[in-house]
C-alpha cells in the first residue's frame, strides 16, 4: 500500500486541504488560542551562577507549566545549526530517497521515516511527516534509520547527541534538588546513563488552511523530558489552566517539556505539559524534539523518598515499555 506523505499532499493542495485534516471547532487553533496574552512559558538562564535560583525557577516552571525554555545551555549554536541543516536537507530529498528509510507497516519499532504515528479520535490526520531514530546510547543506535544523504547527517547528529549530556544532567540535577532529593537521584530513577535519547524530526509543510488544521494534536510526551529545537517558524503551543498559549520562538533557546515519566517519579509535583503544534500558511515548520526516556524494561513509579502515609503514590509503578503500550493503545494505565 502506498502511504501518502503530507509533504506530497501539500504540493498539490494550493488552496484547500483534504477534509480529514480539518479539525473540529474544539481543536481549531485560531478559535482556541488565548489572544493578546502576556502569559508566557518561563525562560531560564542555565548558566546563572546561583544554582539555588536556577533550581527554584525550574521547579516553578515544571510545577506550573510543565514547560520552559533554556538559554545559555552550553550546546554550541553551531552544533544546533548543523543539526537543523542536515535534517532539513533530508526532507528536501526526492520522495524515493526518503522512502528508503520508511518504517515498514508491520514494524513494532518506532524508528524510521513516516506519517501519522498516533491513531486519532474521529479519524483526523495531522499535517506532518516525521523521521525517528535513536541518537544515544551508541549500543541502541540503528544506523539504518540515519539518512546517508546529506553526507554530514551522521557527524552532525552525533555531535548534537554528545553535547546534549551536559544539559540533560543539569536539568535532572535541578529537578532532583527541587524535590529535596540528592542531585543524582532523579537521573538514577530514570535509568542513569542507560537513558535513551530518541530524536524525532517533525516536518510540517506549509498549509493553505493553517487555521483549520493541526501539526500535532494535544498530547503529553511519554518521555522523562523532551528537549526540542524548532526552526524559526512559531507553532508550538502549551496548555495551562485549560487555555492554549503560543510558545514564543527564541533564537538559540532549547524548549524543555516535562514528560509523563517525570510527573510519575515526582508523584505529581511536576506536571507533564499538554501541548500541540500549529502549522503555517506560508512557511514550512520543522522541529527536532529529543525524547529522553528510561530504558524500556525499567520500572518507573513515584520515588520511594517522596511517598509516605500522608502522601500516597498517585501513580502505578510499571515498566516504561508497558506504560507506552497502554498509552498508544489507549488502555487504562
Ligand atoms: C512532538 C511535539 C511539537 C513541535 O513531536 O511530540 O510535541 O513543536 N512536537 O513540533
Ligand atoms: Ni510532544
TrEMBL record:
<comment type="similarity">
    <text>Belongs to the iron/ascorbate-dependent oxidoreductase family.</text>
</comment>
<dbReference type="GO" id="GO:0031418">
    <property type="term" value="F:L-ascorbic acid binding"/>
</dbReference>
<dbReference type="InterPro" id="IPR027443">
    <property type="entry name" value="IPNS-like_sf"/>
</dbReference>
<keyword id="KW-0223">Dioxygenase</keyword>
<dbReference type="InterPro" id="IPR050295">
    <property type="entry name" value="Plant_2OG-oxidoreductases"/>
</dbReference>
<dbReference type="GO" id="GO:0046148">
    <property type="term" value="P:pigment biosynthetic process"/>
</dbReference>
<dbReference type="GO" id="GO:0046872">
    <property type="term" value="F:metal ion binding"/>
</dbReference>
<keyword id="KW-0479">Metal-binding</keyword>
<dbReference type="GO" id="GO:0009813">
    <property type="term" value="P:flavonoid biosynthetic process"/>
</dbReference>
<dbReference type="InterPro" id="IPR026992">
    <property type="entry name" value="DIOX_N"/>
</dbReference>
<keyword id="KW-0560">Oxidoreductase</keyword>
<keyword id="KW-0408">Iron</keyword>
<dbReference type="Pfam" id="PF03171">
    <property type="entry name" value="2OG-FeII_Oxy"/>
</dbReference>
<dbReference type="GO" id="GO:0051213">
    <property type="term" value="F:dioxygenase activity"/>
</dbReference>
<protein>
    <submittedName>
        <fullName>Flavonol synthase/flavanone 3-hydroxylase</fullName>
    </submittedName>
</protein>
<dbReference type="InterPro" id="IPR044861">
    <property type="entry name" value="IPNS-like_FE2OG_OXY"/>
</dbReference>
<dbReference type="Pfam" id="PF14226">
    <property type="entry name" value="DIOX_N"/>
</dbReference>
<keyword id="KW-0847">Vitamin C</keyword>
<keyword id="KW-0284">Flavonoid biosynthesis</keyword>
<dbReference type="InterPro" id="IPR005123">
    <property type="entry name" value="Oxoglu/Fe-dep_dioxygenase_dom"/>
</dbReference>
